[in-house]
Structures are given as structure tokens and as C-alpha cells.
Amino acid sequence: VTREIKQLFEQFKEEVTNGNLKIDNTPTYDLINKARFDFIHTLYDPVSDLLASSKLPEQDKNLITLPEGYAELDFSGTSNVLRGCVKIAV
Questions:
Q1: Of 24, 36, 16, 30, which is closest to residue 86 (Cα–Cα)?
Q2: Whole-angstrom distance between the N-terminal and C-terminal Cα of the chain?
Q3: Which residue, of 9, 48, 75, 82, has the greatest Cβ tally within 10 A?
Q4: pLDDT at position 62
Q5: Residue 38's beta-bridge partner residues?
């Protein structure tokens, strides 16, 4: 599903970039053109350029900061929350 969402997003971005949607000078247009979108899944997929969720702590150390009493737990790159998500960076 994440692969398909990424494909739909890329088609949408192309329509925005080509001016077919007539949303120039809007916050949506700015977001599409200025932000970086990374599509993440529990399984690495080099063909679709999906990032492996297990690699997220390497990019953001805040993901391995745990509340007191939970420090012995490891980051779960296979959790349902990370099974398919989108990272948006401005």
C-alpha cells in the first residue's frame, strides 16, 4: 500500500508542478515544492525507494529517547505505527 501511495503522490506532485491543478501561490503548492517527502515501510524496497522503518533512529535520535523506566526497550521498526508512514521535512 505504501508503494501505491507514493506513486499517487508522485503523480499529484507532477500535476502540481506542471500547473495542471491551478494551485500556484497557495500553501499547498509551497508545501509540495519545498518539503521533502520520504515514504517509510517496515520492509526496505529499493525499487520503489521506500525507506526501511528500522533505519529511522539513525536519522532522528529522538526516536530512541524513552521515558524513565523504559530505557531497556529497543526501537521497534516493525510496529504497526511504522508499517507505512510518510516523513515530511521542510
A1: 36
A2: 24
A3: 82
A4: 83
A5: 87
